[in-house]
Amino acid sequence: MNPDIVRRYPGNPILTKADIPFPVETVHNAAVVKHGDEYMMLFRSHLRTGRSIIGLARSPDGFRFTADPVPFLTPAPDGPFAPYEEFGVEDPRVTKLDGEYLITYSAYSRNGVRIALARTTDFQEVERVSLITEADYRNVVIFPEKFDGLYARLDRPHSEIAPWSIWISYSPDLRFWGQSQLIMRPVQYHWDEMKIGPGAPPIRTDQGWLSIYHGVFQTMDGSVYRLGVALHNLQDPARIIGVGDSWILQPQDPWEVTGYVHNVVFTCGAVPEADGTVKIYWGGADTVMCVGEADIADLVALCVDHARPAK
Ligand code: BMA
Q1: How would you write the pLDDT of the chain (311 residues) with one tens digit per residue?
Q2: Ligand 1: distance of its center to the CA of 96 in Å?
Q3: Which stretches does DSSP call E strand in 47-184?
Q4: Would the CB of 95 count as within 6 Å of ligand 1?
Q5: Of 1, 5, 122, 294, which has the highest C-beta tally within 10 A?
Q6: What whole-number distance in Å separates Cα of residue 124 and Cα of residue 143?
């Protein structure tokens, strides 16, 4: 395998707290999506309370981002979401579907962590739709197409019994989700053996849905977060064609190795381009935002030609 399957952008990190016009301590774990000619980045930032909010930055080219003057989404002050967001909103993902942008994010509170769904059409007005999981869930990504009339998502419940794994669920209306099944597990004594979770919303390719996920390995010096890839059947995304045996990205640059949480690369978004490349965005050490490029064909080939079992 090519060790540089993801080519890091030489200008990394592309967004840090110094670039944000309101006080934050970190800029990380951002969703990125193309809206017209602009790349929209919804990033997570820690405040000095230790709790997180979501900001918005825009870019003409996917590399140079400028943050809006005010946060995009902060914990709901009242209403049905408020009791579940009091500890912060984290790790957004964005999927464009039927002309609107569906935003999933982790809502933290004394009741645990669950996933909320919001929507926007213009990145100005944002409407909270529903809390779409109970506790404890993180890392929900919605597919950009429906399957037999149903929305589909990859999700990641927590369990005391089983290693944290990737599941799939379906919904007729984005509010009520079910038909859940486990489709991918960590592999023992492998780079993702401790836990895995969906990263970027899946990308359609000719060979299947490409999913970029994170995997965690426990060491004597804490956990290491890396990124890997899996390929799902186009018509039936619950069927996994292959999971790449090796990671595609691991902490390497100084701002990935050291920061708020050491040894973390964590993705919430990737943008496929017309030339067959994909821009992959990741948070470095829960502190800064980075980007790199890969050839989609290489990532697909890793899943097909160098696969490990999905479960
Ligand atoms: C996970 C989440 C992510 C974070 C990662 C590394 O459990 O909290 O937001 O990037 O840990 O700290």
Answers
A1: 446 899 999 999 999 999 999 999 999 999 999 999 999 999 999 999 999 999 999 999 999 999 999 999 999 999 999 999 999 999 999 999 999 999 999 999 999 999 999 999 999 999 999 999 999 999 999 999 999 999 999 999 999 999 999 999 999 999 999 999 999 999 999 999 999 999 999 999 999 999 999 999 999 999 999 999 999 999 999 999 999 999 999 999 999 999 999 999 999 999 999 999 999 999 999 999 999 999 999 999 999 999 999 99
A2: 24
A3: 52-59, 66-67, 88-97, 100-109, 112-120, 127-131, 137-142, 151-157, 166-171, 178-184
A4: no
A5: 294
A6: 23
